[in-house]
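Example record

The entry below shows one chain as it appears in the dataset: sequence first, then structure tokens.
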Amino acid sequence: MPITDKQRKLIWVGAALAGAYFLAPTLINHARQAFSTPEVTVVKPSPAKPAPIAPQPVVISPQQASDAQVARQLTGDWIGAGVLPARGLCRIGLQIKPDPQTPGNFIGYSTTSCNPAFALTGQTGTRENRARAAAVAITPTSVIMTGKAGANAIDFTIDKSIGVPMDGCAITGFTASPFGEMLAVEWKAGTCQGGQMILKKVPSIQ
């Protein structure tokens, strides 16, 4: 039976409606994607890290190195004995240590005790002199001093004197310098004659 033109039109219309029914969702999605605003992904920058600071080299001058070496040589406990003019046979004990309150400075504690030998002091062995000698022997003199290393030595300033020496001449200045493995000390006593002595290092009493 041949298909009439009217039937042919109905078939084409039905096919068109079926195609539209199946394709409509796809077309709608494409239209939405075309007119929608695209998402923008925001990338947060990583926190900036400060560049590492290179350590600065410590520059030590030749004089500073020399002063440090002198300081190492002179710190510690020292003791020596010898004849001092007008005082007889004397013993000197000295302690040198870093000043905890002032880096680079040092504190010194020196104690001198004497046993007058009348033949060396030019005095006669009278009862009065012997009594005085006994009093001096049990009354040593001491000084507390502070100083700074320099010029291959430590020059001390006397901060406090304890006791009066037999000749009445208190120490007014004190210098300590290396003498091989020993220590050479020299002191001034105002207008009186000063003195010198070589000290030997001994184990620390602390």
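Notes for this example: Residues 5-35 form the longest helix (31 residues). The chain has a mean pLDDT of 76.
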